[in-house]
Amino acid sequence: MNKAMISASLVTALSTALVIAAAPAEAGMKDKEKCYGVALKGKNDCKAGAGTSCAGTSVRDHQGNAWSLVPKGTCEQTVSQTSPTGFGQLKEFEEKNS
């Protein structure tokens, strides 16, 4: 085999491995939903407002613009001390005064 053929085979093998590795993660996401206002300080899965990078960046418990992945259907049943309804929300919200 020449170098070009070996390189092409290697790229194909690596691409296939990446696709196979990503499939279980995507399948698990189908049973989850983003829930705002339930993450504890520094324990959010992602999004915590302007100037933050992502996971682990929430600066306080139950921050209204930080979310965690929870089992689908449980978000709006999970207690949130800052939510206007007292429970997690499917969209970010302005926190009520405690």
TrEMBL record:
InterPro entries membership: DUF2282_membr
Biased composition, class Polar residues, residue ranges: 77-86
Keywords annotated in UniProt: Signal
Signal listed as a keyword: yes
Signal peptide coordinates: 1-27
Pfam family, one: DUF2282
Region (Disordered): 77-98
Descriptive protein name: DUF2282 domain-containing protein
Lineage: Bacteria, Pseudomonadati, Pseudomonadota, Gammaproteobacteria, Vibrionales
